[in-house]
Design brief:
The protein is α/β, with parallel strands linked by helices and 407 residues long. It contains seven helices and 24 strands.
């Protein structure tokens, strides 16, 4: 069993498989380095959040009995059932799990990686980018601050909104908000992909006097302005962008990816549509749901159950429903929580215990904010080791309210 990627999804899957498969199975995890980042923590770094312990050793979270190989992947050869590493080594496999994630690619947008990169144009999806942005914000006294999403899908699709709410609050605290035009530019037709959540989040942006530029698909960056394919221009003094996200290059070289190098899979079984011996999970797949840690978590049990069944020569019987939940930091020590799946959009209600909570869905609260901060401990100590979580993988409608419609 070979797992390509030692991030969130790959580490969870490998640890869970080691518990489920007997010792006749050799499990190997491959990643290019020994640095495992806690990516949700990057969001807080521009506002003075801690940087210590955001990156830890991958070795520390891989169970005994799993081999961790530190080398980049050149390609997968499905016909030979081999992984070819960049140093020329070959790793044969009976089953392969691709968990290589999504990678921000600022080089894919003309002008983004020009002389203004990390001077007036910043990202926060990398630790280096978040640190550089922290310095830029301290120096920012006012002007046009634009938060921009290049295209979808992206890792953690609510993160740009969270940054927008947090920077609004940060500027108000420092008396700089009145001197700042804050703009949110998105290729979507609203604040979010789901109608109920989009309406709620859109109204929160409006309440904070944040201008939304919808349906903005950037063609290039010309100095200090975004230019869309339709000829629209958005000037900026400070640009915080989410570059185009793509899958791993080896996926493209192996002929296993779509146009963005994400692996097409059956959305319920997580099995590759090209090869039954290959599965993909987390941000590496083309699942029609959020590229978020919660999706990796909820789908991991389903994937492991299916791999174990397939290894035993049985048919796959477990199905992933697209369950995702996302905390949305909204500033002032509050946050919202979204819970949804393939068929049900985010709705009001309570989570994780129906009618009890303590967290409330689609509602700003301090409890939700505390929940997001507490997740860091759960991530390192429960999620990555593959220990059971007291939350079922499938979404439940218990405790949720249907949206009120008016004619």
């Amino acid at each position: 069993m070979v797992v390509l990627g030692g991030g969130t999804a790959g580490t969870m899957v490998a640890n869970k498989l080691r518990r489920r498969l007997d010792d006749t199975w050799v499990i190997t995890v491959v990643d290019r380095d020994d640095a495992h980042p806690y990516q949700p923590g990057f969001l807080f770094v521009p506002f003075g959040g801690p940087t210590r312990s955001l990156v830890r050793s991958r070795h520390a979270f891989v169970r005994d009995g799993i081999e961790l190989v530190l080398e980049a992947v050149d390609r997968v050869d499905p016909a030979a059932r081999e992984v070819v590493l960049l140093d020329g080594r070959l790793l044969p496999y009976d089953f392969l799990v691709i968990a290589s994630g999504a990678v921000p690619r600022p080089d894919q947008t003309p002008g983004m990686l020009g002389p203004q990169w990390r001077r007036t144009i910043f990202d926060f999806y990398t630790l280096d980018g978040a640190k550089a942005l922290a310095t830029a914000l301290r120096r920012f006294t006012g002007g046009r601050l634009v938060v921009h999403v290049t295209d979808v899908p992206i890792k953690c699709p609510v993160a740009p909104l969270e940054f927008t709410f947090l920077v609004d609050h940060w500027l108000r605290e420092r008396g700089r908000r009145d001197a700042t035009d804050l703009i949110y530019a998105t290729p979507l037709d609203g604040a979010f992909t789901q109608p109920v959540a989009s309406q709620r989040l859109g109204s929160m942006l409006a309440e904070r006097s944040i201008t939304v530029e919808p349906d903005f698909l950037v063609e290039r960056i010309d100095g200090t302005a975004l230019e869309s394919y339709g000829g629209r221009r958005i000037p900026f003094d400070l640009l915080v962008t989410v570059p185009l996200n793509r899958g791993a290059d080896f996926v493209e070289r192996s002929g296993l990816g779509d146009e963005l190098a994400f692996v097409p899979v059956d959305r319920h079984t997580l099995q590759s549509t090209a090869d039954p011996h290959i599965f993909a999970i987390g941000d590496a797949s083309d699942l029609p749901t959020s590229k978020a840690g919660s999706v990796a978590h909820f789908s991991a049990d389903v994937l492991v159950d299916n791999v174990v069944e397939l290894a035993a020569g049985r048919e796959l019987t477990h199905s992933f429903d697209g369950h995702a939940n996302c905390f949305v930091e909204s500033g002032d020590g509050k946050a919202l929580l979204l819970d949804f799946n393939y068929d049900t959009e985010p709705l009001p209600g309570t989570y994780p215990v129906p009618f009890v909570g303590p967290m409330r869905l689609l509602t700003e609260s301090r409890v939700n904010h505390v929940g997001k901060l507490a997740f860091r401990w759960l991530y390192w100590n429960v999620l990555l080791p593959g220990r059971p979580m007291p939350v079922p993988p499938a979404m439940s409608m218990a405790g949720k309210k249907s949206p009120v419609t008016t004619s």
